[in-house]
Amino acid sequence: MRRSFPYAIFEILFWATVAAAFKITLKYFDFLTMLFYSSLTAVTVLFLSLVIKGRLAELSRCRKGDYLRSLGLGFLNPFLYYLALFKTYAILKASIVATKGKIFSFTIDHPLGILLALTSSVIWALFWIFNLKDPRAVAIKLFWNFLFSFSLIAIVVLIREAPKPNLPGVVGAIYIGIFEMGMTFFIWLEALERAEDTTRVANLIYLVPFLSLLFINILVGEPILFSSIIGLGLIVTGIILTLS
């Protein structure tokens, strides 16, 4: 736990900021254009990390099955996962809770957004389960996953229309590409692979919504709902019980 804990905390702090970054960037881009530029940034960051570490030669040592695995994993995440996630943020408020505290009436204002949010969670879980079974080095498999995924994203975006850049949107997408996708994925996988008990480390990810609420309130100006505080309080309690 001690070896993986610093990686996990560093990762959580960055991931906590990206919900606010999503909403701000979506003021300038639609969700597909945001995904295009952020994915391009992530691929570039991962490639540069391989250059700096002198590991480019390892990219060509993958077998045919490894490329097929990366194509499948890349389709799950970033491609499918971020299509669902970014569309969710385009529909919903960043801090929304399904019932907005209306527990007894259980009315859902944006069923598509809620469905996409739930779907993205399932895709996320499947990706990490399958990815941990991939024996390749973290940096190598992530680069190929993201490269194949970006190719799929580029095809979808360019068929629709060529993305039109604007400075605020590009800056936001670059931030997302670095701190949501690129280096943070690498850091999180390092944390899981260094952990003696991956379950305990993985549970720390549930701190992200708690911290995200603060950034969303400060940077985006969305109010923090009382129901959100109660729900996140239960999550934190569960994490404490798990770690004890």
UniProtKB/TrEMBL annotation:
Origin organism lineage:
Bacteria, Bacteria division WOR-3
The entry's protein name is Permease
**Superkingdom, according to UniProt?**
Bacteria
Against InterPro entries, the record matches this protein to: EamA_dom, EmrE-like
Name one cellular component (GO) term: membrane
Q: Where is the EamA domain?
A: 8-99, 112-243
Organism of origin is: candidate division WOR-3 bacterium
Coiled-coil segments on the chain, per record: none
Which residues span the membrane?
7-25, 31-52, 73-92, 112-130, 142-159, 171-189, 201-218, 224-243
**Keyword annotations:** Membrane, Transmembrane, Transmembrane helix
Q: Does the keyword Metal-binding apply?
A: no
Q: Does the keyword Membrane apply?
A: yes
